[in-house]
Write a structure and sequence with these properties.
489 residues; alpha+beta; Beta-Lactamase; Helix Hairpins; Heat Shock Protein 90; 7-stranded mixed beta sheet; 5-stranded antiparallel beta sheet; 15 helices
Length: 489
């Protein structure tokens, strides 16, 4: 991975360097060409000034004048520097040029001169324009500059200079070499800097990879340094450590779950086997067989209940589980639950009441699932309420939410147990005594309420315990609308 990242980064740097070098090269080339053309124009302007000093009707008239000598010296200087063809033309058609000297030095260049181009250029100059033009003549690029010269604010002539493009563009090879060397040096230094930075920045990733291997082997105690690398890498490190802690918690929960299931299954199985073997071996007298057969039946019932709870919890935790939504009266469900548990209530002489604030109280939910919640909560209340105790079922409406409460005056929930009351297999009876439950009921209830998008909580009470869950409340209009929709379907 390090090599791939390095390759990508260096490729990006290389592309950027090449693009910047190209822009740099074009800029320097244009600056050099513009600078040399500006220089040629300034020289042409000096020649034009000297030519304007030659008064009279013809340049040749003043062959021996000082201005003429200065003009020739300046023209020779430009010729030596650029190998240019230089022509000074006045309004009377008189021409002074260096065509003979230029032809003797470079006849091909002189032969490549275009009379049409020169005529057009001179016409523009005599009209008062300063020109700087690049021409392609027989695939031989040339540069042409020209300036007018004036007398008494009137154009009286033109200075025309034409030279090979090579003379203007010479020396660009040195600039190109300098750019290439500079680019190579930048790439080399960038490569070293990126290598050192990436190696330092990715070291936490290497540690993370090793830690991930340890996690794959079941070791969830590994942690990575959260203070190394850039902001993004630090965030990844924190997320990795959070994930590790959560995985450790999941693994601990899994082990505890397996241990609890094993214990819950072993306990009734051991009892059943012990009683069966005792009766088969004659250890238990025959006259006591009915008593122990009843115990075997009770343990079998307990075992069956545990399996049913495990299957129910497993089904509820599937992602594709669906709810059968309907609208019903939760108060009627509370009263039905009391009737179904009347025998257990009478055996313990428990006084029970149902106190709805709004009657009927229509809610929208999965009827069978909510009935399971109500029965579980009522069974818990009966189980932990002593002889002659009291249980109160109530419902109330708060806006668009119905609140259902199951409260008893039994032994309650200890402060240290409140945070764990909804954990799987957690029971107030830490020894999991036979007949005291599996510790899955509240977990199942909480999962059902989560599926409905509602809540189930343990309330703070001075005596006993109180559980409250919420449901979506349907007023009369909403209930009628839903009924009509159902009838239409």
């Amino acid at each position: 991975m390090f090599a791939r990242i390095m390759a990508v980064v260096m490729t990006a740097i290389l592309i950027t360097a090449v693009c910047l070098s190209g822009i740099w090269w074009i800029t320097l080339r244009d600056q050099q060409i513009d600078g040399r053309l500006d220089y040629l124009i300034s020289e042409a302007e000096e020649i034009a000034y000297l030519a304007s000093e030659l008064t009279g009707t013809a340049i040749e008239t003043y062959w021996g004048s000082t201005s003429r000598q200065h003009l020739e010296a300046k023209a020779n200087k430009v010729y030596r520097e650029f190998g240019a063809y230089i022509a000074v033309v006045d309004q009377w058609g008189n021409i002074m040029d260096n065509i003979e000297a230029a032809y003797s030095d470079d006849p091909d260049f002189i032969r490549s001169l275009s009379g049409e181009i020169i005529t057009d250029a001179l016409e523009s100059i005599l009209n008062g324009e300063t020109i700087r033009i690049r021409y392609e003549v027989d695939q031989a690029p040339t540069f042409t500059v020209g300036v007018p010269f004036m007398k008494n604010e009137r154009v009286i002539g033109a200075v025309f200079i034409q030279t090979k493009a090579q003379k203007i563009e010479s020396g660009l090879e040195n600039i190109l070499s300098m750019i290439v060397l500079t680019t190579a040096a930048v790439l080399l230094l960038s490569g070293v800097a990126v290598f050192l930075y990436m190696r330092s920045a990715l070291r936490p990733l290497k540690k993370m990879t090793v830690s991930a291997g340890c996690i794959a082997e079941g070791d969830f105690s590994v942690q990575v340094d959260e203070n190394r690398g850039g902001r993004e890498l630090r965030e990844v490190s924190r997320a990795f450590n959070t994930m590790t802690k959560k995985l450790a918690g999941v693994e601990e929960g899994r082990r505890e779950f397996v241990a609890n299931v094993s214990h819950e299954l072993r306990s009734p199985i051991t009892s059943i086997r012990g009683f069966a073997e005792g009766m088969a071996d004659g250890v238990i007298p025959e006259e006591e067989h009915p008593k122990y057969l009843r115990l075997v039946a009770d343990e079998s019932k307990r075992l069956s209940g545990l399996v049913d709870d495990l299957l129910a919890l497993s089904r509820l935790e599937r992602d594709d589980v669906q709810l059968d939504w309907s609208v019903f009266d939760i108060n009627e469900m509370l009263r039905t639950a009391i009737i179904r548990r009347m025998t257990a209530l009478e055996e313990k002489h428990i006084d029970i009441s149902c106190e709805p604030e709004t009657d009927p109280c229509m809610v929208r939910a999965d009827r069978d699932r909510i009935e399971q919640v109500v029965i579980n909560l009522l069974d818990n209340a009966i189980k932990f309420t002593g002889e002659g105790g009291m249980i109160r079922l109530s419902s109330a409406v708060r806006g668009k939410t119905a609140e259902i409460t199951v409260q008893d005056n039994g032994i309650g929930v200890a402060a240290e147990d409140r945070d764990r009351i909804f954990e799987r297999f957690f029971t107030v009876d830490r020894a999991h005594t036979s007949g005291k439950g599996t510790g899955l009921g509240l977990s199942i209830c909480q999962r059902i309420m989560e599926m409905h998008g509602q809540s189930l909580c343990l309330l703070d009470t001075e005596v006993g315990a109180a559980f409250r869950f919420t449901l979506e409340y349907c007023d009369r209009k909403t209930t009628n609308d839903l009924t009509e929709m159902k009838n239409d379907v």
